[in-house]
Amino acid sequence: MSQSLDRALTLVSQLATGPKTLDELSGVIGVHKSTTLRLLRTLESHRFVQRDGVHHYRLGTALFDLANRALEERDVRRAAEPALRDLNSRLGHTVHLASYEDGEVIYIDKYESRHQMRMYSRIGRRAPLHCTAVAKILLADLPAPALQKVVSGMEFPRLTENTILGPAAYLAELDRVRANGYAVDNSEHEDFIHCIAAPIKGARGEVLAAVSMSVPKVLLDYEGLLSHLPDLLATAEAASVECGYVPR
């Protein structure tokens, strides 16, 4: 670990016990006040630290935001687990839970198929934005300016004959997702697998995560996959209720 980073983290840890003066913080990390002040100003610019009056420093709002976001991610995973595990147990197909963070969609949980064919996806892996059902669910909930920014920076490589190509077609697809309340990956990511996904919502109706069910085409054709849509939607609603959502 770099010396500056180590000192900055030590300052943050000290401030967790309460406001401190510049002199106190300099004494903790054992450097001149000018060096401490430079570190504090950097932390302050990122909202990890804020000045409390003239002589004291305290923790900044960015830390509370990060802590809340980390807790929310763990909470949705824990809250959704019974419903997702039940879906996987009843139908036997692969079930994923994914979340959106800073332009990326990440798998945060997975329940393996009970069939011999397994998917290579794993927890922590990124899901391609333009061709996965979970990404469509999560991006469809973004405010218009944020969505335009993400889509303008996306690439649209053709992975199968069904892959959506280009921003216009993708935005039209997201319109369908909003209207339908679910998303499909009709063999757009891999030509031998298709998938359906639905949103898991929080207390304010915001989309916290996406749950999906993925099935190899040799086990179930597209119409057969869609026949399980009521199961998936019921699972998403049950998980949402556990996250504080109140169905209308």
Number of DSSP E strands: 9
The main sheet orders its strands as 6-5-4-9-8-7
The helicity comes to: 40-55%
The termini sit apart by 51 Å
Q: Helix and strand succession? A: HEHHEEHEEEHHHEEEHH
Whole-number mean pLDDT: 90
Largest sheet: 6 strands, antiparallel
Strand fraction band?
Answer: 15-25%
Task: Give the low-pLDDT segments.
Answer: none
Number of helices: 9
Radius of gyration of CA atoms, rounded to a whole number: 23 Å
Shape: elongated
Structural class: alpha+beta
Keyword list:
46% helix; six-stranded antiparallel beta sheet; three-stranded antiparallel beta sheet; elongated; 9 helices; alpha+beta; 248 residues
What is the topology?
Blueprint: H1 3-15, E1 20-21, H2 22-29, H3 33-45, E2 49-52, E3 56-59, H4 61-91, E4 94-101, E5 104-111, E6 126-127, H5 133-140, H6 144-152, H7 167-180, E7 183-185, E8 193-201, E9 207-216, H8 222-226, H9 229-242
Antiparallel strand pairs: 1-3, 2-3, 4-5, 4-9, 5-6, 7-8, 8-9
Tell me about this structure.
- The chain is built from nine helices and nine strands.
- With 248 residues, it is α+β, with helices and mostly antiparallel strands.
- Strand 2 (49-52) and strand 3 form a beta hairpin.
- It starts with a helix and ends in a 6-residue tail after the last helix.
- The relative contact order is 0.11.
- The mean pLDDT is 90.
